[in-house]
Amino acid sequence: MSTIVPAENDSLIFGRILSTSPPSQNETGWADDGYDNIPVMHMSAHEGQWYKDGADEDLNLIMDVYESCKDIAGIQLFTFFENEQVIEPEKALPNSVFIFDDIITENQKIARTYFSRGRHNLIDVFYLAQSYSKVPKQLLRDNANFIVLFKQDETNLKHVYMEHCSGDMSYPEFKDFCTSCWRKGRFEFIVINKDCERDNGRYRHGFDTFVVI
Questions:
Q1: Pairing relationship of beta strands 124-128 and 190-193 according to DSSP bridges
Q2: What pLDDT does 60 receive?
Q3: Hey, which of 11, 142, 188, 189 would disulfide with 207, CB 3.0 to 4.6 Å?
Q4: Count of CB atoms within 10 A of residue 101's CB?
């Protein structure tokens, strides 16, 4: 790693969004109004209440931020607790954002559907997981174009390198890039943006700092 260059006007912010309020629906099963929508598939029906009950102070603060998203004009928030409840990509409104959170032990069929067909319907898809290697490779890991990676063990790190970075650098170089970012703090992360060139935003420390390997 030789040079660090700040990115210009190129950042992305996202997070987990939870809600315990059911959406209002018309006869087609979708809301009547709104252009930007955030449907969320979350497998734990009571997790939102768990946060509010005070099990973790930091999570309560984050939950307050999520709840405030529902008050932003033009944004609707929907949650799905079962695979069967999730609508097909073709029925989702354009410019929707789907967030699959903590579903690593669930049936992955619906997630695969969105990773393979979501882009054709102008849908952005986020998949949050605690273990990279446990995320199915076909259609999910292979189709991911923007990867946010917090500190990983050797096994997961090698999977990421082999699948996304082996053509750009050696494994020791990749590991040095990751560890140099992660050691700066507990919540530091690296980004791999596969839509960018190798030395022009493909590798980043956080969202806004380009790293030239």
A1: unpaired
A2: 57
A3: 11
A4: 19
Say which residue the tokens 């997630």 belong to: 111
Whether 27 and 86 have beta carbons less than 8 Å apart is answered as no
> How far is residue 189 from each of residues 22, 89, 148, 192, measured CA to CA in Å?
33, 30, 7, 10
64 SS3 class: helix
Number of other residues whose CB lies within 10 A of the CB of residue 52: 15
Q: Beta strand pairing status for 203-205 and 190-193?
A: antiparallel
Mean pLDDT by 10 residues, the chain (213 residues): 45 30 36 40 36 47 61 75 87 88 87 89 89 90 92 94 96 96 93 93 94 89
Q: Where are the beta strands (DSSP E) in the chain?
A: 3-6, 36-42, 75-80, 97-101, 124-128, 146-149, 190-193, 203-205, 209-212
Positive or negative, the CA dihedral 12, 130, 42, 82 is positive
